[in-house]
Every structure is written in C-alpha cells, then in structure tokens.
Amino acid sequence: MANLKSTIQQLAKEFFSETVETRRHLHQNPELSFEEYETSSFVKQKLDNLNIPYLTMANTGVVGIIKGNLSSDKVIALRADMDALPITEVEGRMYGSTKPGIMHACGHDVHTASLLGVASILQNLRHTFGGTIKLIFQPGEERLPGGASLMIKEGVLENPKPTAVIGQHVMPFIEVGKVGFRSGKYMASCDELYLTIHGKGGHGAQPHQNVDPIAIAAEIISALQQIVSRVADPRIPTVLSWGKIIGNGSTNIIPDEVYLEGTFRTFDELWRTEAHQKMLKMANGIAESMGATCNFEIRKGYPFLVNEPNLTNRSRAYAESYLGTENVVDLDLWPAAEDFAYYSQATNACFYRLGTGNKNLGIQSAVHTPTFDIDENALEISIGLMAYMAVKELEV
Would you call 141 a catalytic residue per the annotation? Predict the structure, then answer.
C-alpha cells in the first residue's frame, strides 16, 4: 500500500477522540488483577461493535482475531494488559477512579484503550493486507503467576501460532511524541522473598537469656548482600532489596520472631537459580549458628524479558519511519519486571516504551504512584504506530 503511513495517520486522528473516551472510561472503572470482569465485558462489546471475533482465556482474558483479506499465512500478536493496582488516586480528576483504593497507576488503561484503537484501524485496513493479527487483552500482569503465563498455558500462542508478539508500555520519563526501544535483554526477572526468623524473646536487659531474631535478621540482611556484591558476576546486573521488616517487640522487649519481605532480580536464569540456592543456604546457616531457625520462601516470579534483535530492529525502523528518527530513543536496562517476559521466552517478542510525559504540563509522576497520569496526546501516536508496525511486520 503506497500511502500506508499517511492512511494510518489519518485513521489515528479519526479514532483519537474515541480512544481518549475509552481510556477515561477504563481509568474511572479500574479492576484488580484477575478481577477484570467489567473490563473484559467492555472489551468484548467493543470488539462486537467492530465485528471482530474473539475468544476468552484465563477467565477474564480476551483474544480478538483480525484476518486480512489478502492471501498470507503470517500471524503476529499484539498485547495489552488490563489490570489496575491497589492504590488510592489523588482527588480532583474529572476522570479519576470511582473505586476507592483501586487505580490505573501503571497505564494499563492506556494499553487496553490503545489496542482497541489499533483494532479499529486494522479492521478498516484489512482489505489492504494479508495474514492474521491476534489482539491479546491480558489479565493479571501485576500479580503472580502473571496473566501472560496463564494465557500461554491455555494456548494463546497456538492455533494459529504467531511468529512475533509486540507490546508497549507507558513511560512517563519519555516525553509525549517519542518512543523507546532496546534490543536484547531489557527487563529483569523478579522473585519474591519471604523470611521468618524464629528466636526466643525476652527482656532487652537480659540478651544472654534470649535468641535475638532482630540481631540475626541484621546479620542475614548484611550477609545476603554479599551474594550481590561478591558472588554475582559483575557483568550480570543483580538486585536484592528488603521492603518490609516486622519485629513486634518494644524498647526493652526482644520479640520471638522477625518477618521480612523482599525482592531478588537479575538478568540470567542460570545465575538466578544459583543465587536462590546460595541465599537459602546462607540464611539457614546464619540462623542455625546463632541458635535460631528460619523459614525462607523464595517465590519464583517472572523471567527476564528479552527483545528479539531482528524483530526489535525492524520495529524500531518502523517507528523511525512513522515518527521520525529524532523521536525514537534508546532504552537502558531496567530492573523492573513485566510478565510480557513470558511471551519473550516463548517466541520472538518486542516490548517498547510509549512516551507519555509532558514536563510543561507537570505530567511526570512515575508509575505505581497516586499522581500518575499521561498526556493523552500519546494515544494518537500509540494507536497509529502500533497499527503501522503490525501491517509492516505482516509484510516481512
């Protein structure tokens, strides 16, 4: 199609206001992970209006199917997540959350609204391309085991089997009008750590009669950091952080136990497994040597996310063509985690960043905060670019 870019840009303008309206509706009606029943019904209604067939997966997940009219066996998938977070939004927004304590603070409303906008564009263009596009509306990105893993188990990457999965995520630290890409490893694996140290409590003035779990917790925390700084290959980024410590004693009361929660993240699966074994052995050894016992659960989470180089390089080229080279930026390694990583471990995948920030308007808050918001002009870029990338990738 000779004027594909201009055609899609025009369609993006036409569907922009509807996409904004959709995003605001979703933002006002957030739902937590694996509870996206209203959102799922809303997505299905939109697909019905577009005459796009779909099926349900992972209870609340929806997979729409768009088939081009031209002859081609090529299949690609586009993914959006739908769940919100247990965060109370700041007051005063006309499209603020109507559900106390629940907020779309990670932009999944943007992702879902965008993919519906992309569906509108592609459905209008299906006479111009061949192949099949799967629209993956996925639940539960924010909570283990991750909706992506469940949808893969239920066959989202089969019948038909896509050769590529493309996803996007808002990025408030990139200005609206720009997008970011990184080839190869991009985001970290993520494991949850739950540690309980069982000692013997008593009077703080008689520590010799007690087994102090607070002192033992301090030893374990310090020692486990040696795994990061002295055992890990320095070429493999590794993070170990503790975010919760509960030792319910008092100024002169040593408690019976201390409870900790933390996270372990890295970019190499072999090292990840080795580190788990070393952490368990070290924590148990320190506790035993000091007269205590410990229960240490490492809850394995998402794997690391890798962007397949060929697909990512092509996707970046599509973005440069659509937006201009000056509006496509490089991304650094990021030790946050994303369950899109499951797709990237199963097939060729590209996960890129959509700029949604606007310094002049004060739209700079990070995701997962009560003040997070976007410059909604990003939605026109979002729907147009992803539609353009999809059609171009079908031509490969």
Answer: yes
Per-residue pLDDT at 2: 55
Residue among 62, 147, 194 at smallest CA distance from 338 = 147
The 3 state secondary structure assigned to 246-286 is ECCCECCEECCEEEEEEEEEECCHHHHHHHHHHHHHHHHHH
Annotated catalytic residue, options 35, 36, 81, 141: 141
Question: For residue 245, which amino acid is it?
Answer: I
Catalytic residue among 81, 83, 175, 376: 83
- 28-to-31, 66, 102, 213 alpha-carbon distances in Å: 10, 28, 10, 45
The pTM for the full model equals 0.94
Which tokens belong to 192? 């949850």
**Does the active-site annotation cover 83?**
yes
Which domains are present in the chain? Answer: 4-188+303-394 (3.40.630.10), 191-299 (3.30.70.360)
255-294: per-residue pLDDT in tens? 999 999 999 999 999 999 999 999 999 999 999 999 999 9
Residue range 315-326: average pLDDT?
A: 98
